[in-house]
Amino acid sequence: MGIEEITPEALDAAEFVAEQVEAIKEAVGDQIAISALSGGVDSSVVTMLGHKALGEQLKSYFIQNGLMREDEPEQVVGWFADLGVEVEIVDAQGKFFAALKGITDPEEKREKGITQVFYRDVFAELVRQSGARVLLQGTNYTDGEETAAGVKRQHNVFEQIGIDPEEAFGYKVLEPIVQLRKPAVRAVARALGLPKEISERPPFPGPALCARVIGEVTPERVATVRKATRIVEEELKHSGAFQYMAILHDDMVTGIRNGERDFGQQIEVRCWESTDAVSGTPTNLPFEKLTRLAERITTEVPGVVSVTYNITPKPPSCIEAV
Ligand code: XMP
Hints:
Blueprint: H1 13-28, E1 33-36, H2 41-54, E2 58-64, H3 72-82, E3 87-91, H4 93-100, H5 106-130, E4 134-136, H6 141-148, H7 165-169, E5 172-174, H8 182-191, H9 196-199, H10 219-236, E6 243-248, E7 253-257, E8 260-273, E9 281-282, H11 287-300, E10 304-309
The protein binds xanthosine-5'-monophosphate (XMP).
């Protein structure tokens, strides 16, 4: 695909920062650039590189797509305010839910419900409003590789699959960390002085909780998976695992509550051991932890009567469900 990986062993993080700052300065010149910050380590590193390179010429936005976790926008804006970077929250929930309405096919959800809304609608509008010509984004080496291989359409990959963003959306996309996988991105985050909450943050997909709702993505169904996500993250944050998540299934099952039939929803819990998300194995969690998760989810999340744990490695499973 023409892009060469820089492995963690080959990476000199300080040198990488200096080179990328220069490259961004040169590419943007005296124009305005915007950064799409989600608070994950990838987009955080890119935002800090952009901030170092461009200062006031960079406008950073957090897109509230309605698919984020509890309190996520405020938390991310707070972290960056402490770093001296102003981030504006853009409320685009209505646009995403309108586009996702009625879609159940996973690739269609990613393409029509997420990619098109982000790039053709939300970023294009921000670019117009701010007069920016360049979008900085945190596409990493694994995103490009899996999309190019046809495994999964990552929401943020264009050039590797033959799409020219300037032609398709009217602005240029810069991808400063496209040669790095996650461990190398984390090393750059540390070199940039980002706090541990960011540099060591478990990965979270660009399509956010949309990747964790099987079937139609509605505000109600996202609210359900969001509540289960909070419980799973609280319970597993000290597990040392690479990534952990709750997934809402589409099929309902018969349960029993207070002696009566309760036909309800199912949540699947996944917890992964991995270094780079290319392959992974399920964490061997204590059975007591699993039963505690089941108890909390079925009592604290309305409508859920069943909790399962995924015991399949990647491959053949993927990390996310959609
Ligand atoms: P999969 O599900 O493909 O996930 O095994 C591999 C890693 O990538 C994350 N992921 C995404 N990240 N945009 C992203 O930025 C996406 O569309 C996307 N899909 C999956 C996933 O959380 C895991 O860490």
